[in-house]
Amino acid sequence: MDQKINLTLEEIVTISPNFMQELKFLSNKERKYLMSLKSINSQEQTTTQEIIIKDKMHYSCPLGMIEVSVGQEGHIVKSLVDTGAELSIIPEVDSIKARLPMRVLKMRYRGIGGHSTAIVGLSENTLLVLPSGDERRIHFFVARGAVHTVIGRPFLADNGIRLEHSQLRVSPGGG
């Protein structure tokens, strides 16, 4: 799936509040570094200046919330569509309400912000009905705790889902 999405700076700041903080952080560090270089050069000192920059600047591209029907009984959940998510996740509470079959799985998943979420199971080939009425199958990792249902990149790519931003729709098909 090789698509380009053009975003304005305003949109980037909206979807990633940390982006502006990181940008300010980097600008301040660069300014301090340049001033220290001027100071070193003017005094002809031979000291080494060190700048510590955070290892990674994380961002995500959540595209909005949609209501989907999950499981054979049609349990309705609000799901975050996120092209950057590596997994599709459903809270354990919603998994139980939807009576989803689950294979027990114990692991921890680290989010882009560094937080850790307990994964307690995997619900494979779960029926998912999109707002358009199309039925698809999804593999949901079942998460314990206060998390949103997330429809991630693997599902979107595997199903050729096209995101129509201007009309705020999620529909199957390429293009």
Automatic annotation (TrEMBL):
Residues 77-114 form the Peptidase A2 domain. One of its GO terms (molecular function) is aspartic-type endopeptidase activity. GO terms for biological process: proteolysis. It comes from the Eukaryota. Keywords: Hydrolase. It holds the Pfam family RVP. This is Peptidase A2 domain-containing protein. It comes from Austropuccinia psidii MF-1.
